[in-house]
Hints:
Elements: H1 9-19, H2 23-32, E1 35-41, E2 50-55, E3 60-63, E4 73-78, H3 79-86, H4 92-97, E5 101-105, H5 107-111
Parallel strand pairs: 1-4
Antiparallel strand pairs: 1-2, 2-3, 4-5
Amino acid sequence: MASVNQLKSDSIMEQLKLHMSTDAGKELTKKIGLVYQINIAPKKLGFNEKSFVVDLKKGEVKEGTYEDGKPDATFSFTDDDFFKVATGKMNPQIAFMRGAMKIKGSISAAQKFTPDIFPKPSKM
Length: 124
């Protein structure tokens, strides 16, 4: 069984955290202004999930659950599916229709969370 500490998605979240401090990241904060929680499971949704908060109001990404009320939208993925969506290998709408992505909260907020938010990977 895969360890919760070793997800492919960790590197994506680390890149996103760095991206938020760039001019492009600051533009996203101004443009979107919403808070997302992303739950990533190693193999099966709902089991051993690791949570991240992508706060596009403050421009920060951190591990853990959102503690200042409710996030605008919460996504649940398996590690592989999140990696595919974040790197543009899977369309988010297709992921949702296939059940590879679960959404709680505002659907209109969820629709603003697109792969464009993620920095383009230089080596993947």
